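Researcher: We're teaching a course module on how sequence relates to structure. For the next exercise, students receive a sequence and then see the predicted structure as tokens, so they can try to spot secondary structure elements on their own. Here is the exercise chain.
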Amino acid sequence: MLKLTKRTEYGLTALVHLADHGGETVSARKISQHYSLPNRLVAEALKDLCRAGHLKSVRGASGGYLLAQSPADLTVGEAVAALEGAPKSTDCEAKALVSMGFGALGDLNVESKCMIRSPLHKIQEDIWRQFERTTIQELASPEFTLLRDERSPHTQLQNSA
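Model: And here is the predicted structure for the students to work with:
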């Protein structure tokens, strides 16, 4: 089943932060401090996003990271794939093969051997398609609730009431 790692969540948080700050260069340390996240994991996520071409790294005293493309052109799916790869199916078919004495998938169709694979796989595919349709710009928009405590005037009004 699709499950994002903490590092991927931190990477998505950093992308939203960078989208909020336009073309401003922001360090991993500033992002970590702003959201109280582990600096090492944020820095690792940013490096992976940089290697994938989604971020640019700027060296020097005022260095840090900035988006290499418009947040409207970068999807959550692309970011997740850069951070942890595309999602994997349930391991049901692999377990069925091993229990039958096969070491590799080959041409054998084992979907019929796993009663939950098909429904779970469909749900996972639907989630992944949503990731591929959702851009970082949309994730950073007020309609999404991610990180609203720090960013939404509506949430701040509720918290102060």
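Model: If you want an answer key for the exercise: The longest helix spans residues 117-133. The beta strands are 55-58, 64-67.
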